[in-house]
Amino acid sequence: MLAHKVDPRRELRLSRAERNIEYMFERCSQSGGRPLYLFLDEVDRLIDLDAIDNWRFFNLLAWAKDAGMVRFVLAGYRSIGRLVFGQERERANQASHGKRPLPATETPLLLAVEPLALSPLSRKDADALFAEPLISSEVQIENRTKVLECIWKATIGYPFLIQFFGHHLFRRGADRQPQHITEDDVSAVEESLELREFLETHFIENTLRHGIPVLPERSCAFLLAHADDADWTEQDFWEACRRHEVPLGTDNLGTIHRAVKNLSDAQILTCDHGRYSFAFPVMKKVLASSYPDITSALKALAGS
Known about the structure:
Elements: H1 2-6, H2 8-11, H3 18-28, E1 36-40, H4 44-52, H5 56-66, E2 70-74, H6 80-85, H7 88-96, H8 123-136, E3 140-141, H9 144-155, H10 159-174, E4 180-181, H11 183-190, H12 193-205, E5 208-209, E6 212-213, H13 215-225, H14 234-243, H15 252-265, E7 269-272, E8 275-278, H16 281-290, H17 294-303
Parallel strand pairs: 1-2, 3-4
Antiparallel strand pairs: 5-6, 7-8
Helix pairs in contact: 8-10, 9-10, 9-11, 10-11, 13-15, 13-16, 13-17, 14-15
């Protein structure tokens, strides 16, 4: 697949031998004089498989990087931490889920790449991301200050949510003459079935590991959605799981720590001075209303 993406014309003349791929890198980057730029998305499964194969693929990438032949961005969620920071944290995570730990081999890119965590936009950038495409499309924003304030409260600067609101508000505004959107349109999108489905899909897809639901993560999110308090410490999550008899394995505190950390990485929760809350308030509302019976929901999770 890599050969096909880099140079389809040479692909048929390449065998699977690493040296032939190295030769392709040398030729296509002019021996390092013009590095190839690679973007690899959803690499977690690739990392797990390559670890079992003694890092054949990532050793090749590390060699090409050190030789100046490639520069790359790797995007992932779970196992990518193992690739960047080492295997101990990932082995502990595997063990806490009752899985056979992955081989304890040192990674080729250990501390060799710069980790970048996604974070919300500033208020200024969030306003621009939402407003400028609408204005350039000649969709006017009535009472712009108020509309932008509503968008900010709903999205808290998360780009994927701003894009969702922008897309749906553009559709509403473009169907009118003259083309425009109002504060009422923002409220309509915020209460829409489309937003509910969008957020539920975001939650479900980001609490899977290799296609299997991660019980501690989903349980912690459900429990916080039904809590009276807006934010919890890790101890609050642990005590709530204990009261509801959520199975966490032998390393209870470690399991809770990893669960809320992963939920934060997935932009479902956010953390401020050790206290976790939902990254955007509408997610709490969606989970609480979609799963109103917390006891039944937790039992269903445990049985899945």
